[in-house]
Amino acid sequence: GILVLLLLILLMVIGIKCKHMRSCYLLSTTAVTWSKAEEQCRTLGGHLLVVNNVEELDYISKIVELRYSYWIGLVEREHEGHWSWVDGTDFNSTLTFWDIGQPDDWDYSENGEDCGQLHASQIRKRKMLNDADCSSPYKYICETKA
Ligand SMILES: [Ca+2]
Ligand SMILES: [Ca+2]
Ligand SMILES: [Ca+2]
User: Fold this and answer.
1) Would you give the DSSP letter of residue 99?
2) pLDDT beneath 50: ranges in the chain
3) Residue 3 main-chain phi, psi, to 5 deg
4) Within a domain: 49
5) Does residue 16 form part of some domain?
6) Separation of 99 CA from ligand 2 center, angstroms?
7) How far is the centre of ligand 1, averaged over its atoms, from the C-alpha of 108 (Å)?
8) Which helix H or strand E contains 41, and what residues bound it?
9) Of 69, 89, 41, nearest to 129 (Cα)?
10) Which ligand has the shortest distance to the CA of 59?
């Protein structure tokens, strides 16, 4: 009815995209640190994007802006090489599409790189993952249940 239509228009206006009505995704327009990004997604009732399967990755790959990297809900919390998803999804149960040469824990800044993001790319293709410095500002993708 008219209410559903109005709701859909509202969702489009604020930039939320829903896939099969199971998850909705919000692409941020601002760049913030990883923990600030996760905090903002929690405020919206969701979390940073958890890539559960390749279909979801391919969907997201179509809606992001290529030239930006986006924080996602992947983080190395305790020790190096021990990645976890923010919603508790078992990391070993998901496929991870690291970009070539990643994760490299690049130590340009003293912190190394312990937060996951979708890597910027030149051409439209399946987005690959990169580890980056958690304290650097990047755009981000929130995921909420529809
Ligand atoms: Ca997901
Ligand atoms: Ca690291
Ligand atoms: Ca890296």
Assistant:
1) P
2) none
3) -65, -45
4) yes
5) yes
6) 15
7) 31
8) helix 34-43
9) 69
10) 1
Closest ligand to residue 130's CA? 3
- 73 contacts 50 by C-beta, under 8 angstroms: yes
Most distant pair of Cα atoms in the chain: their distance: 55
CA distance 23 to 17: 9
- Of 110, 105, 86, 83, nearest to 95 by C-alpha is 83
Give the number of domains in the chain. Answer: 1
Ligand with the closest atom to the CA of 132: 3
Domain that holds residue 104: 11-145
Instruction: Give the separation between CA 2 and CA 84, rounded to whole angstroms.
Output: 42
pLDDT digit string, tens, across residues 5-24: 776 666 655 667 777 668 99
Where residue 43 sits, what CATH number does that domain have?
3.10.100.10
pTM of the shown model: 0.87
Question: Is 90 part of any domain?
Answer: yes
Cα of 87 from ligand 1 centre, angstroms: 9
Q: Which residues contact 97 (CB under 8 A, 6 or more apart)?
A: 54, 57, 126, 127, 128, 129
Is 31 part of any domain? Answer: yes
